[in-house]
Amino acid sequence: MQGSILQILGIYILTCMIWGSTWLVIKIGLESIPPIISAGYRFTLASILILGVILIKKIKIQTDVTAIKLYLSMAFFSFIFPYGLIYWAEQFVPSGLTAILYAVYPFSIAIFSLVMIPSEKIGINKIVGIIISFTGLYVIFSESFTGNLDNYILGLIAVFISAIMQSSIAVSIKKYGHHLHPLAMNFYPMLIAGIVLLVYGFIIEGHLKIRYDYKAFFSVFYLALFGSLITFTSYYWLIKRVNIIIVSLITFITPIIALCLGWFFYREELSMHQLVGCFLVLVGLLAAIFGNIGKVLGKKI
Fold it and tell me: Are 244 and 120 in contact, with CB atoms under 8 Å apart?
């Protein structure tokens, strides 16, 4: 079932809104739990919640050779390594600079798609849209760049590698994962990721103080239910139905959501630079999609 335009648009917007909020919730949780352990709790709980839904809905978990290869690839290259690298990098790299570098994700998606799925047409409107949106994201965070970039070089490399890893897996799922249910394809990868991150986290972060307070429980539960179960399931649902370049543009929208939430909850000031950057991101998104909105559902896009 392909899904209607309104259904796809609704899930796309929901995914953007929730993923945009996760940066704020991660920040809250890190006040109580170290990053790797926190990520481990997040994915372990998410896998349990996913299993519950699978059992209730009686969804079949595919175990063919292709499915198992995808599960293992997703576990290590969508969750364990990418999230480990990003959490580690954010100890050194400003969040704005992280957002800019991670925005290489749509470019990487385009390159992998060109090589792996030639039928997944890119189109000049998508390339122009990506460039405009990337420029807008740069404008948003340009004022926050301070200090010598040489101090962040290892962190920058980590973020870059993380984006490349996740983009390659996303394209692989688009090409080989048509037969996998979006819920089923998340269960094993998140379970494996949760266990590995927890073991590794307690080994290297176990000496740090952990407070199991309301912030910790809220953060882990929110990120497991909304930031993992709902968003990743929705994301892979979209990948199976929409041109993957369009789906990857979520990367440009989530920082704007995070900015708005920071303004609303923390009264962080929105500068003219940020407002202009948000406008450019919006223009870029419209340019990428405006070619023919009806094609968003079809294989021609």
Answer: yes
Dist. CA 167–CA 44, nearest whole Å: 23
Indicate the burial class of 288 (C-beta count within 10 angstroms; 0-12, 13-18, 19 or more).
buried
Buried residues in 214-241 as b, exposed as e (16+ CB within 10 A): ebbeebbbbbbbbbbbbbbbbbbbbbbb
Location of structure tokens 């909850």: 265
CA angle 107, 109, 110 (to 5 degrees): 65
DSSP-assigned letter for residue 79: I
- Asked if the model's pLDDT at residue 150 lies above 60, the reply is yes
Whether the CB-CB separation of 152 and 93 falls below 8 Å is answered with yes
Q: Which helix (H) or strand (E) holds 198?
A: helix 184-205
Neighbours of 71 (CB within 10 A): 24
Q: Which residue has the higher pLDDT, 21 or 203?
A: 203
- Predicted model pTM: 0.81
Rounded to 5°, the CA angle 15-21-24 comes to 155
Residue in this structure with the two tokens 């249910």, named with its chain if needed: 181
- The type of residue at 157 is I
Among residues 204, 227, 212, 184, the alpha carbon closest in space to that of 22 is found at: 227
CA 292 from centroid of its chain's CA atoms: 25
